Amino acid sequence: MNDEVLTARGLRKAYGDRVAVHEVSLALRPGEVLGLLGPNGAGKSTTVGIISGLTVPDAGTVTLSGGLSLASDEAGYKRRIGLVPQDIALYEELPARMNLELFGALYGMPADLLKRRTDEVLAMVGLSDRAKDKPSTFSGGMKRRLNIACALIHDPDVLLLDEPTAGVDPQSRNAIFDNLEMLKAAGKALIYTTHYMEEAERLADRIVIVDHGRVVASGTQAQLFALLPAAQTLQVELDGEPDDAALAGLPGVQRVGQRLDARMTDIGRDTGPLLAALAERGVKVRGLATARATLEDVFLQLTGRALRD
Ligand SMILES: Nc1ncnc2c1ncn2[C@@H]1O[C@H](COP(=O)(O)OP(=O)(O)OP(=O)(O)O)[C@@H](O)[C@H]1O
């Protein structure tokens, strides 16, 4: 028995010679946000496309809880999945409300339910007072929020979001994050693709890092940071100008001008001994700061390249 709402196994998709997705497997539980993190072209959209049923894989399976798959019941499967595509997909010249009604009609929702859900999702994304307006008159952030509302109209269990904050102002971005946290609290399962590691760090319970179509690492943030030789850096601001000889031989310590950067796996344990060693050598300390490793560091460690170009 498992409590997964979605299980993807061995997904593979090639376009000619180019393998976009290679043996990607992932699983998702209710109330969980899975961050799919990787640079441009890593295969995130293709993976999401396969899970949504828009892209046919060359190999692999996606199953929802209860054993539901595209092969067993395509309409039933799609009713449980919502997709927020990377490129905004709206009818620009139709009122916001009508956009939602059209999406709802695709799922065969009865009129009374559709009316109720339309009101609910408009309220959720903060667009109730713009229901009669056309997306062509909306800001980028408002269009994104309406796009998310369209994906939620049929109340899916699983929401796939493909870089949903592209071109969004900070205020709308925060509003989107609030919405996603609300959905998570309501037990929805979310796959969130991004190449912004700050977004993955903020939202994701677990993260799958992809590169060149392959999963290079997956786990909780703590598990991913554990892949680094040192998860934290203690920055020691020096008082005066100690000579390099006084600083020689301190393990994991690097001098950066008037500062020492000490890489540590356990900052609580390792700070005391370092400060004692510095005092013993007559090195005076003016201040301390800590810097935490980021997912960018994890990606760099695993691939030797930066996440963003
Ligand atoms: N329809 C297609 N035809 C040919 N090649 C494609 C197609 N879709 C994707 N690819 C290629 O597959 C690879 C993975 O693309 P994908 O869009 O899945 O990456 P991504 O991680 O979502 O990147 P981005 O963040 O830029 O959207 C890329 O090399 C891309 O050029």
Structural overview:
A hairpin with a 2-residue loop joins β8 (206-211) and β9 (214-219). It contains 11 helices and 13 strands. The mean pLDDT is 92. It is elongated. α5 runs parallel beside α6. The chain has a 6-stranded mixed β-sheet with strand order 5-6-7-3-8-9, sandwiched between helices. The chain has a 4-stranded antiparallel β-sheet with strand order 11-12-10-13, with helices on one face. It has helices spanning 44-52, 74-79, 96-106, 111-124, 140-152, 170-185, 197-203, 221-225, 244-247, 267-280, 295-303; strands spanning 6-15, 18-28, 33-37, 59-64, 81-84, 158-162, 189-194, 206-211, 214-219, 232-238, 253-256, 259-264, 285-292. The chain is 35% helix and 27% strand. It has 309 residues and is an alpha/beta fold. Adenosine-5'-triphosphate binds next to β2 and α1.
Sheet with the most strands: spatial strand order: 5-6-7-3-8-9
> How much strand content do the residues show?
25-35%
DSSP summary, beta strand count:
13
Helix content: 25-40%
Tally of individual helices: 11
Q: Compounds present? A: adenosine-5'-triphosphate
Give a short account of the largest sheet. Answer: 6 strands, mixed
- Through-space gap between termini: 42 Å
Give me the strand/helix succession: EEEHEHEHHHEHEHEEHEHEEHEH
Inertia-based shape: elongated
Poorly predicted runs are: none
Mean of residue pLDDT? 92
Quaternary form: single chain
* Alpha carbon gyration radius: 24 Å
Alpha-beta content class: alpha/beta
Pfam families: ABC_tran
Protein name: ABC transporter ATP-binding protein
Domain ABC transporter: 6-237
GO molecular function: ATP binding
